[in-house]
Amino acid sequence: MAAQQNSNTVNNTGEKIIIPKKTVWMRMKENKVAYLFLLPKLIFFTVFMLIPILWAFVISFQDRGVFDVDYVGFKHYFEAFQSPIFRAALWNTLLYTIVTVPAFIITALIIASFIYPLGQVSQAFFRSAFYLPTVTSMVIIAMVWRWMYNYRFGLFNYIIGFFGFEPVNWLGQTSTALPSLMIMAILIPPGAGIIIYLAAMNNINPSLYEAADIDGANAFQKWIRITIPLLKPTTLYLVILSTIGSFQVFTQIIMMTGGGPGYSTETLVHVIYKTAFRDFNFGLASAQSVILFFIIMGFAIVQFKSLRTEK
Amino acid sequence: MKSMKKLMAAGVLTIGLTALTACGGSSSGGSEDIDSWEDWTGTITIWDGPRWADEDENQYHWIEEKAAEFEEMYPGVEIEIVQQPWAELGDALSIAIAGQTWPDIAPVDISGGAISINHIESGVIESTDDFFTEEELTDFYPNTLEAYEYNGSLYGIPSGVSVQTMLLNLEIFEEKGVEPPVDGRWTYDEFVETMIALTDDEVYGFSTYILDSYYEAWPFLFMDGGYPLNEDMTEYTFDSPEAISGLQKLMDLKFEYGVAPMEMGGADVGGTFQAFAALDQRTIAVQPWSTWAINTLQTEEYQMNFMVAEYPIGDLGEPVTIGGVGGYVMFKQEDEFKRQMVAEFMKYITSTEEQYVTAKNYGTFPARESSAEMNPHAENPHMAAAQELTEQVISVPMHPDWARIDEVIQSELQLALNGEKTAQEALESARSEVERILNN
């Protein structure tokens, strides 16, 4: 592989040989069958993802009526940041992400670590048990949680009432509404994370643990010194994925609070949705989407740089 | 190698042809070689939401029957019905408008929901002025026409009216030995007195919710003379002493008199209704709802013994409520003969007879006087009582950005009703953002 990238190298007898550089096109031609198989997916990706994303970027500089288009430069970007509602949504989304993503990762890692030492049958059982809830629609989950948070009939107020505490208006107070949504996100089992961590744990070479046993390491030391470092690429993948998902939080908001009370649970995607499909302001909605895109990209770059494994 | 090239070429050709076919669209008829709109043939597309069910549980049977009748009257005309759940109709229509793939007719108004005045200004909505004589228009209640008027022109046909009413659970009134208001009319003080008498450890007198685009609580803000915007809709006026006093009266029910539960003012529409209506709850004696709730409470699922009352009377000296006007609008047409045929179908489904039928079965009130005279709710005293409230209707301002203004005000109302702001703070807080929207 390294020889393909260098034009000059040295053979076993010490003679300098020149290997012609292969262009991207030449390498693509070599793998044309593979590209042919990838073509349908690439076409769909281009038509339904890439072009709409680029189109949204273009629209963000336009005032679009139904029949006419005016170029307005960065007007929508300034307008987005001038709006107190957008700023509130940005802050709420950041807070939601900062709290829920680490919680998701830590919970998934701990649960997967408890499942990993079990036998195959037990592992399969717990994998299914934790993964099954993730196939449930978020709409259904949100409806159930809304009932659990109900002031008078909800499960949470019943439990705290049992211990003599006053009921809490969970979703009706600005001080508790966003934390309630965060608690919900944290308490939903991180099924996908557990599955991915378990798969990664099963790929760790057992001889590393055997060597640690010989050195007298206990279970916690092995977890800290071997498991967690070797899971770093998996953690990076999960952190990036869950950050993207967290920034795009929407269903819970529209089902449980509508962004209120006040704007205490307003989030970026909910604002984008309202701007586009309630106010018909597609230019502003696209600018808000582009801002969200760059925020997520910024987070992903920082996460990638801080968590990537050096070769 | 050659076979690979052929395969790739075939693939590209297939994709190209598919794309071309997709872009082609379908013809919806034409006017070549005809002299009159009555000879026009082609397809008219109408979107409609579910209405009352027939014996097969089909909630679209009424519009299907009307389409079939119309097709028989005008051979060569095909009415294509696209079934749209009400909850999704607004979003679906917004997307269709953005992509210029709108239907010919849709059941919406121009108050700023799925369709707004912006769409009229940009030419998406057709005027219906040409299709009604002055005499025909006199059959419509003036306030129903106002809901479809902009700059002196009519943009749609009203087909029905709904109003917010106070619904009283008479079982709770009876249980507590409390008399409901005579003729459903009460002053605010009498209302408070009644709510106090109804409230105990298990039952609250009153409750409602606050959510964007829902106005069950707003007649309280209007009862002393408050209104969101000035007459020419250039200035925010909801922080007037009258509006603040109205909001204070609503807040007092919760914080001063303790006749409303802690969750009053939250955004849980379903939970609020179930607390009032569900057989295993019924912990609220009085709630304001739109007229759809009257029909719902009469179903087997609820079977509630209830009555319809007015909102309490405030400083205005007379009861006020909020209402909505339903109807149909026509989207931009390229073909003049088709435009006339589409209008003819709209007139057909909003005729005197049809407004009578839909009012009777769907729980609305006719927009036509001639339909109302047929007394569609003669056998339903609750609906008849609610119909009297249509005269008290105050509508929200018809501003192009009303949805955004509404959101700002509603979010402040939530904060007032959960005790985080005073009435004055809440309504004054909305000013800067509403004025930013008005001045934009």
Automatic annotation (TrEMBL), chain A:
Bilayer disposition of the protein: Multi-pass membrane protein
InterPro entries the record matches: ABC_transporter_permease, MetI-like, MetI-like_sf
Residue ranges crossing the lipid bilayer per the database entry: 33-58, 94-118, 130-148, 177-200, 235-260, 280-302
Full protein name: Multiple sugar transport system permease protein
Pfam family, one: BPD_transp_1
Record-annotated ABC transmembrane type-1 domain positions: 90-303
Compartments it resides in: Cell membrane
Entry similarity comment: Belongs to the binding-protein-dependent transport system permease family.
Domain of life: Bacteria
Organism: Evansella vedderi
Alphabetical keyword list: Cell membrane, Membrane, Sugar transport, Transmembrane, Transmembrane helix, Transport
Keyword Cell inner membrane listed: no
Main location: membrane
Automatic annotation (TrEMBL), chain B:
Residue runs in coiled coils: none
Domain of life: Bacteria
Record's signal peptide: 1-24
SUPFAM superfamilies: Periplasmic binding protein-like II
InterPro entries for this protein: SBP (IPR006059)
Source taxonomy: Bacteria, Bacillati, Bacillota, Bacilli, Bacillales
Keywords, alphabetical: Signal, Sugar transport, Transport
Transmembrane segments: none
Protein name: Multiple sugar transport system substrate-binding protein
PROSITE patterns listed in its UniProt record: PROKAR_LIPOPROTEIN
Transport found in the keyword field: yes
Family: Belongs to the bacterial solute-binding protein 1 family.
